Amino acid sequence: MSEKNLTSISGYILLLIGLVLLFGSPFLFINGAIVAGVFCVFAGIVVLTGLAVINPNEGVVTTFFGDYMGTMKQTGLRWVNPLYSKRKISLRARNLNGQTLKVNDKMGNPIDIAAVVVWKVTDTAKALFEVDDYQLFVQIQSEAAVRHLANSHAYDNMEGEGVAEVTLRDNTGQINEVLENELNERLERAGVSIIEARISHLAYAPEIAGAMLQRQQASAVVAARKQIVDGAVGMVEMALARLAEKDVVRLDEERKAAMVSNLLVVLCGEKNVSPVVNAGTLYS
C-alpha cells in the first residue's frame, strides 16, 4: 500500500455554515418548526464533523469503513467527507538517540556502540497500515542495524601490515554511510526515510579495554622502533659511503662490523650513550 493524496476544500466557509445551522436552530424551535430545527442541528453537526486543522509538516490519514481513502497534507482548516475517519501523523524530522549496546565485533571482541538516527515519515499509508507501531519499529530496527554493523566490521585493524579493511574506528564516514543505507532498506516498508545516521559512541567493553590499550601502546612502540631502525640503517649506510668516497680511512670487514655495531647502539638506544675511547687496536 502506498500513500495517495486526498483533495480537500477550505473549511472556513463550511465552519461558518455549520455555526449558522447550529445557532439558527433555536429560532426554528421557538417558531414551532421542530422538524426544520432538528434537521438544522443534525446538518450543523455533520458539517462541523468534516472539519480538520492541519499544521505544517503534518498529515491527516483518512479511511472509510476500513478502506484507505488518502492523506491530506494541505495546511490550515480543511474539510472532507464527515464519514471519513481521520488520524493525524507527524511528518517532522525526529531524533532517535539509541542506547549503548554491548556487541561482539567481527574479530569477536566485545565493544560498546551506540548510534543517533534522524528520521521522518515519508509514506503515511505504510507507516500506519504496514506495521503495528512505526515508532517502535524504527527503534527496534535501528538497534538491529547497529548490531549487524558491529558484527560485520572490526573495531580496529589488528594487523600492523597487510591490506587495511574498513573498521569502525578508522573509517567513520564509510561506516555511517553503510549504517544509513541499511536503515533505509530496513525501514522502507514502514514508510520511513533516514535523513542521517551516525555512530555516537564507540569503545571497547570495560572487561577488555585495559588489554586493548596495552596492545595499542605496544603497536605504537613497535612502529616507532621500526622507524628508528630504518633511519639508523640509512645513516650507517651513508656514513660508510661517505668515508669510502672521501678516502678518510680504509676499513676492513671486521672494522666495518664494529663501526656498524657501535653506530646502531648509539642511534637506536633510548638513552644517551657515553663514549669509551679505545687506545688499543682490534688486532692486539
TrEMBL record:
The chain crosses the membrane at residues 12-30, 36-54. GO terms for cellular component: membrane. Residues 49-216 form the Band domain. It is a single-pass membrane protein. Keywords: Membrane, Transmembrane, Transmembrane helix. InterPro entries: Band_7, Band_7/SPFH_dom_sf. It is found in: Membrane. This is Band 7 protein.
